[in-house]
C-alpha cells in the first residue's frame, strides 16, 4: 500500500465532506477508523499503526484548516470512547475518562491521535456535527440529530468502505411552518 497516496486520498475525501457538511468553525468532526479494513482485512483483526497515523494526520490537518475539532472514535473495547484535545473536552463539558488506547483496544486511529494532538484525552461521548466512517465502525452514536448521509467523492479507501454523516437542525412545526434553506442539501 502506498502510504503517501493514502494520505492524499484521505485528505481529499475529508476536505470534500467538511466543505459539503455545513460544519462550522469550533464544531466537532468524528472519525471512525478501521485500519484493518483499509489494509484489506477484517475490522479488528489486522490493525496497522502506520495506516492509522497517515489517515489521522491527514484528517487532523484538514480539520485544522477548517477550524473544526477532531474526535477519534475507539473500538468497542473502549466502549467507543473518543480522543479529543483536552481544551475541547473542558470547553464543551465532555466527560473525561481514564484509559489509554492500545493497538487492539482503541485502535490505530486513537494511538495516532495521541501522537499528533497536543494534549489528548479520552472522553466518553461527544455530540458532533459531522463525521467520516472509514471501515464501517458505526459513528452514528456520536453525530447529533438529525443525521444526513453524505456520499464521499471516493467510497473506498484501500479496502475500506467509506461513509459520512452531517447533521441539520430538526424541522419542527406542522403544515403551516416555514423553514430556512437547508445548508447541506442546497439543490
UniProtKB/TrEMBL annotation:
Spell out where the chain crosses the membrane.
none
Q: Which InterPro entries match?
A: Antibiotic_NAT-like, DUF436
Q: Write down the superkingdom of origin.
A: Bacteria
What is an example of a Pfam family matching this protein?
A: DUF436
Homology family? Belongs to the UPF0340 family.
State the name under which the record lists this protein.
UPF0340 protein ACFPQ3_05615
User: What organism is this sequence from?
Assistant: Streptococcus caledonicus
Amino acid at each position: 500500500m502506498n502510504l503517501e497516496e493514502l494520505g492524499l486520498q484521505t485528505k481529499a475525501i475529508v476536505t470534500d465532506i467538511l466543505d459539503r457538511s455545513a460544519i462550522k468553525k469550533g464544531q466537532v468532526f468524528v472519525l471512525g477508523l478501521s485500519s484493518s479494513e483499509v489494509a484489506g482485512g477484517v475490522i479488528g483483526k489486522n490493525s496497522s499503526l502506520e495506516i492509522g497515523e497517515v489517515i489521522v494526520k491527514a484528517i487532523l490537518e484538514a480539520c485544522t484548516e477548517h477550524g473544526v475539532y477532531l474526535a477519534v472514535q475507539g473500538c468497542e473495547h473502549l466502549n467507543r470512547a473518543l480522543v479529543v484535545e483536552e481544551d475541547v473536552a473542558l470547553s464543551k463539558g465532555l466527560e473525561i475518562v481514564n484509559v489509554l488506547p492500545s493497538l487492539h483496544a482503541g485502535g490505530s486511529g486513537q494511538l495516532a491521535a495521541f501522537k499528533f494532538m497536543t494534549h489528548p484525552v479520552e472522553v466518553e461521548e461527544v455530540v458532533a456535527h459531522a463525521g467520516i466512517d472509514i471501515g464501517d465502525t458505526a459513528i452514528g452514536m456520536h453525530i447529533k440529530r438529525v443525521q444526513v448521509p453524505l456520499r464521499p467523492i471516493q467510497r473506498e479507501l484501500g479496502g475500506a468502505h467509506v461513509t459520512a454523516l452531517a447533521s441539520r437542525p430538526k424541522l419542527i412545526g406542522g403544515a403551516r411552518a416555514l423553514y430556512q434553506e437547508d445548508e447541506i442539501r442546497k439543490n
